[in-house]
């Protein structure tokens, strides 16, 4: 199901699809515009099945750890949990300079950050579409999206939560029937150093299932952050 919250996605948008592989990842994605995250600039990202977009190296870990992680890996976790796309759902991604999409993104970010008018020149859109959890005996699926975007000066990440039905895979002590309990999903940002990070409220608690109702920019289910020099807005 696509709602106004999600930017267009899927094969008909030119998206690539991740392999059907538990704890799998995309291929290394070479960015056509380098992306600055917590003051460092990266040219390669991975869209990891387990709800993580990582810089330089893939992340296959399925049970989330609290931030800050001290292993030096910078990444954003739209919804870090044990996704199993073999059991259900798809993970899509594309880099785009589509004018209609960039205009929508530009209008949204300028609306949320009116002191810094923004005209997007590029975006990476990654979408987890009705993805199942590891060990699932249910039909539950989660649909969420992360967008990296820039005007080549400012760098933003938009996180969209459309439908969240489970929080935990069975190998993370979740219940196979409900997808709840155990160590629930984590949403946030890990800089790669051992001091800078941000956790979206509810991370690694049962409350993360309600992320479709929360926001830092007054749009339920959407969280937006400027990430080149990371800044927390609202909350």
TrEMBL record:
Domain named NIDO is located at 78-230
- Feature: compositional bias, Basic and acidic residues: 13-23
Which GO BP terms sit in this record?
cell-matrix adhesion
InterPro entries from the UniProt entry: Epithelial_Barrier/Signaling, NIDO_dom
Superkingdom, natural source: Eukaryota
Location of region: Disordered: 1-23
Could you tell me which species this protein originates from?
Answer: Peucedramus taeniatus (Olive warbler)
Can you say what this protein is called?
TECTA protein
